[in-house]
Design brief:
By secondary structure, this protein is an alpha+beta fold. It has helices spanning 3-21, 25-32, 40-97, 104-122, 149-155, 192-242, 257-312, 319-350, 362-372, 393-410, 465-475, 509-516, 520-530, and strands at residues 127-132, 136-139, 160-166, 169-178, 183-190, 358-361, 379-382, 388-391, 415-421, 425-431, 479-484, 490-497. Helix content is 58%, strand content 14%. It is a multi-pass membrane protein.
């Protein structure tokens, strides 16, 4: 295979992984980095940020409205005071400007006088509008000469004020009428400077909010670090405890809730360690007891087996004696099988079960297993003629004999043994046509001494056959599983790796599930290969 083909295969595999992971891959990435979206750290950051932003907004808003109220009140009072002073200073001229005249040159003189008064008052910083009954409207600023009619009516009886905006510039309009001449004087007080101050206050508030948010982020980071670091240590210690490290302990500092949790964890770990030590001691004692008893029973059982075989060959005894001899012989053989199974289990538990790996032809091994037990007419085999494997032939024989024997004993004939061949895995399926396995018994079918039928007090076997088969499969880095077929009957599947298990050669869970659920199509494929 060329480098280009290898690169394309790697790209296809990467794309397949992305599609399997879906759109949530980045979430899992954040989770692995400690940034769980619903974790403590994001919630602390959100809480601190919310407090900082809300506090800054409240302070800025309060400052804005208080400052605005003070500045407007001051501006209004100043406008009223200035207008009162203007009436006092220029009252005579304004009274004269309100006098009606019949001569044109006198009207011009009055208008000029009022215009001078308006310009003089406007030097204080306000635009001025004078409305005289005799000469009309006089304005110091041609852009500011419009006074609303309603405001004029209100100003005829009292000094009034209102805020207005002209050309985007805010003003305070103040007006009053001078009696008895009826001359009205209006001043436009510019509020641009006050508005600039308020805009700067809003800008300062926004900057303060950002700084408060930054400070809250820093505080939240250190606060979350102080909280999450002990929690992370607790999680690591819990994982080590789950992996069997019973000596793990946490360092306890302080007297807060996290310290209490650490103390509780240490006490729990200590109690668990003591319990495990007691359980290990009890388990070791029970295993030693089983091994010793089995070993001690083996010698007398050998002698008893020989004697019962002699008694079975006696022909001149009465029928009662012959029947008793057969009964004793059968029970002795059953007890001998039980002792052998117990000794095998003891060796596996102790880790002393040896393996003699050799090159064998799996179909020949299967045929020899079936023929040696006289099951040639009861078990139908579908397998290729040649399939070399490296296994311990004796232990594979035990696995196959237990699976086929269990199918013949508790299932229905015919029993079908099918071998499915894959690049790195072999699947050996043993299916029967019986009633199947009860659903509540499937999770426990490979446990020692487990009986699916609780009413069955004793059986011909030792109750350890499937457990021993499972242990032998495990010694080959394989596994056993059981399920019921939809059409009826139970199926035991023996997954046997062709090579030592590794991440590159072992099928993933999806592929394995597809292999384990293989049905008639694969059987027909193997039948075609054998032909």
């Amino acid at each position: 295979m060329s480098r280009r083909e290898n690169r394309e295969l790697r790209q296809q595999a990467a794309q397949a992984r992305i599609e399997r992971r879906g759109v949530g891959w980045w979430r899992r990435g954040l989770h692995r980095r400690g940034w769980r979206l619903g974790g403590i750290r994001p919630r602390l950051f959100a809480g601190f940020a919310a407090v900082a932003v809300i506090t800054a907004i409240i302070i800025t808003s309060a400052s804005y409205y208080l400052t605005r109220a003070v500045m407007l009140d001051k501006a209004q009072q100043t406008a009223v005071s200035n207008l009162t002073d203007d009436f006092t200073a220029y009252g005579d001229q304004l009274q004269t400007g309100g006098t009606a005249s019949t001569k044109q040159y006198e009207e011009a003189t009055i208008a000029n006088s009022l215009h001078q008064v308006a310009n003089t008052i406007a030097k204080n910083g306000d635009a001025v509008v004078i409305i005289s009954p005799s000469v009309g409207t006089i304005s110091s600023n041609s852009n500011l000469d419009g006074v609303p009619a309603a405001f004029k009516s209100a100003a005829a009886n009292a000094m009034v004020q209102e805020r207005t905006s002209i050309g985007g510039t805010p003003y305070i309009l103040t007006g009053a009428t001078l009696q008895p001449s009826g001359v009205q004087l209006y001043t436009f007080t510019d509020l641009s400077q006050e508005q600039h101050v308020l805009d700067n206050l809003v800008l300062i508030g926004a900057i303060s909010t950002l700084l408060a948010l930054l400070g809250a982020t820093v505080v939240a980071f250190f606060a979350s670090r102080n909280i999450l670091l002990p929690i992370r240590r607790l999680g690591m210690a819990a994982r080590r405890l789950g992996r069997g490290d019973l000596e793990v302990r946490l360092e306890v500092n302080g007297s807060d809730e996290l310290a209490d949790v650490s103390r509780t964890f240490n006490e729990t770990a200590r109690a668990l360690a003591l319990s495990m030590e007691e359980l290990r001691a009890m388990d070791a004692a029970s295993r030693r007891f089983v091994a010793d008893v089995s070993h001690e029973l083996r010698t007398p059982l050998t002698a008893m087996t020989a004697v019962t075989e002699v008694l079975e060959d006696v022909e001149d005894a009465d029928p009662t004696t012959v029947s008793a001899a057969h009964l004793i012989a059968n029970e002795t053989k059953r007890l001998a099988r039980l002792v052998e199974d117990l000794m095998e289990i003891s060796r596996m538990d102790a880790g002393t079960a040896g393996m003699r790996v050799e090159d064998v032809n799996l179909p020949e091994l299967i045929e020899a297993t079936i023929e040696a037990r006289g099951w040639g007419e009861k078990v139908r085999v579908r397998a290729p003629r040649v399939l070399p494997v490296q296994v311990d032939a004796r232990r594979i024989d035990v696995v196959l004999a237990n699976l086929c024997g269990n199918a013949l004993k508790h299932g229905g004939e015919p029993v079908e043994l099918t071998v499915h061949e894959y690049p790195d895995t072999l699947l050996i399926e043993v299916a029967d046509n019986g009633p199947g396995i009860p659903e509540n018994a499937l999770p426990h079918i490979f446990e020692r001494f487990y009986k699916a039928d609780k009413a069955r007090g004793r059986s011909e076997g030792s109750g350890l056959g499937l457990a021993i088969a499972w242990e032998n499969a495990r010694l080959h880095n394989g596994e056993l599983s059981a399920r019921n077929r939809p059409q009826g009957g139970a199926v035991f599947t023996f997954r046997l790796p062709r090579h030592p298990a590794s991440p590159e050669t072992e099928p993933d869970q999806e592929t394995l599930g597809a292999l384990l659920s293989a049905s008639g199509h694969d059987t027909r494929q193997w039948e075609a290969r054998t032909r």
